[in-house]
């Protein structure tokens, strides 16, 4: 596929940040680990807040330095206001995912009464398995996103997802939870004797009963009774969990939910980025924006260099160390080589994503954003705010009448 060469950071089709983020209710950042995805998510959230949005950013597993930069408290699951410059027209709250605490809170909120909720959360089987059930950070993050998206306190939710290898769980999780809750598993657990009764022989039933008895002796749990009690109690809550799972599935494919693919222009990772985008596309999700992190650019004039340790000549200005001109020239050539290589990777990514669009029949323009390579990496709030300003100061407040292109729902 041939294309007209675009300039660095030029948006496809003249699309401005306000055109795609201004209408967005939920912004999901996707990408591999180590590409600066969490920092980019924080910068996007700050950019939106600076432009007037009441923003919440959910981070699943931030680096300790970023956690400190956003001033997140040690206790996860708590919305914490992030201090912004005085020029900010909106607000920003940050929250660190607390999967187990959120699951307990959901049980308490969805139970028909407090007594039922306490029976569930105090059940010995629940206490032993709830952590594993809530251990899917991807699904519990979506539960948190649903709460934030429904809250009148925020009009934009920015989500930092797990790395690409786990991010696909985001799209599978709601359907898996629905399938589990719509199955007859709770019926069998409510009457666990039916499991033994379905064994095909007296010997098999005897072996299963012996295993259960041994487990009860080893664990100190009255396993069958506790299973039955938990299944009976949870069956009263399950319909509300099913409703939430369906609402999460709808939210993922809503026209006001947008997806940003964060990537580094690494030639060795380009195939992986396109493969991941293809997997997401097969699930009916299109990446509305691509954020290219750690880009080298030779367009900007570098700051003046003052080599240390040299005396000032009376008329000729600074004296340069021997050979520095050659070394600076070599450095400039190396940077140019890197920048050109990155530009080839960007073109390759554009071609690959355009091909995905053509296979699905064409769609709306995609926004491309480029962030410079910074050393050291931004870790303070001021440094991340600087990134936010690069991401687009023209973000406009939410347009209630707006909306993006409809997404395809996965088959089944």
What does the model show?
With 412 residues, the chain is an alpha/beta fold. It has helices at 17-21, 37-50, 64-69, 99-110, 114-122, 124-133, 137-150, 164-167, 169-182, 185-190, 193-197, 202-219, 223-252, 270-282, 324-359, 381-391, and strands at residues 26-30, 54-59, 80-81, 91-96, 156-160, 257-263, 289-295, 312-313, 317-318, 367-372. Helix 14 runs parallel beside helix 15 (324-359). It is elongated.
Which strands sit side by side, in order, in the main sheet?
3-4-2-5-1-6-7-10
Mean pLDDT, to the nearest integer, reads 75
Q: Give the end-to-end Cα distance, rounded to a whole number of Å.
A: 34 Å
- In terms of DSSP E residues, the strand content is 5-15%
Question: Would you summarize the structure shown here?
Answer:
The protein is α/β, with parallel strands linked by helices.
Blueprint of the fold:
Elements: H1 17-21, E1 26-30, H2 37-50, E2 54-59, H3 64-69, E3 80-81, E4 91-96, H4 99-110, H5 114-122, H6 124-133, H7 137-150, E5 156-160, H8 164-167, H9 169-182, H10 185-190, H11 193-197, H12 202-219, H13 223-252, E6 257-263, H14 270-282, E7 289-295, E8 312-313, E9 317-318, H15 324-359, E10 367-372, H16 381-391
Parallel strand pairs: 1-5, 1-6, 2-4, 2-5, 6-7, 7-10
Antiparallel strand pairs: 3-4, 8-9
